[in-house]
Amino acid sequence: MFQRLVSHNDDIKRLVERGYAVGFDSSYLVIRDIPYLDTNRELRVGAIVAKLVFVDADKVVQDDHQVYFAGAIPCNMDGVPIPNLAGGRVSLPLSADCPDVVVERSFSNKPRIGGKFADFYEKIESYVGIIFGPAMQLYDASPYTFRTVERVGADSVFKLNDTLTSRAGIVDLSSRFRDDVIAIIGLGGTGAYILDMLAKTPVREIRAFDLDRYYVHNAFRSPGRLQEDELGKSKAEVYAARYENFRHGLSTRPKFIDNSCESDLQGVTFAFVCVDKGSSRAGIIEVLRSLRIPFIDVGMGLHREGGPLNGMMRITYFSAETGQRVVEKGLVEVADRPDDLYRSNIQISELNALNASLAVIRYKQLRGFYAEKSPYYHLLFEIGDLMSVGETDED
Fold first, then answer.
1. Looking at the whole model, is its pTM more than 0.85?
2. Pairing state of beta strands 295-304 and 270-273?
3. Do residues 41 and 73 lie in contact, with contact meaning Cβ atoms separated by under 8 Å?
4. Looking at the domain 179-391, which fold is it?
5. Domain spans, the chain
6. DSSP label at 234?
């Protein structure tokens, strides 16, 4: 990342040539080794952090005129805080690969002419000049250390830079997915939406399985585009092509998963079971339980009694420790129901998407990304009254 951004952005290249300790963390520019004085006139060293907005894979521009600062309040030689550094205390967690930079505050100082910096070079030069001047006078300190941090963070799984995560300030939360290997078993309506959501989540690897082919009815209950040449191909081939230019670490396999497929699931840390046949579900649960892989099983049941459709969506979580008890409760169907209208491929993409969303939200709760007030292992959402009920271990 360092060499690529430096070679394609003249303003960042100028920062390196000037002698700044330039580094990157996710979608942030990090300038280390910035000397400053604290309120006791002691010499301290901080870091300036600025957001990168990626125009494409190689070119970056500024977000605005503001920066973040890892350090205390910079002061003049008399110990009085430097004026004209508006902003305040703020917490901006960087990734676990950048533990030495702890952002404590933001600064806002617009240039007098135009109110906007021309580029990163002008922006960093301006802020550094304000912050380190007193330290230079008192201690002859310099920010030009020519120290290069060539690789702070690990390479991203995404082929595009994840600027949304850094803009939202949730890099530390997103890093909780970095070691996960996810299996998605079934790429029908709900499974296809789960794949779409997880493809945009920084999990290390996704393995998706489905033996079926992609037909017209699938296009009406799955995300994304339709190209006519996709019809009749395996779902595995269709979805591999759709996300090939988005991320690394995705494999889609035209395969039916049963208790003979342990090798396909080795190394998986979490799974989603998205099948509509109870008999298929039974074999999948057996192999996941034998490998002690935690998983969420999704389901949907629709019925019509002379009027509008009604029914429920379900997500059921089987942990490695308590999964057998959930199995024994009989909360999921392990036999086929030929009378279920869902099996006739009614076009219900909004329900598939909602069912997938509930499942992915629950998974992200388990990883500590979302807050969790009630640790549900079984959740039902009814269409008719738009209400949900759930079961927890305390019930």
1. no
2. parallel
3. no
4. Rossmann fold (3.40.50)
5. 2-158, 179-391
6. B
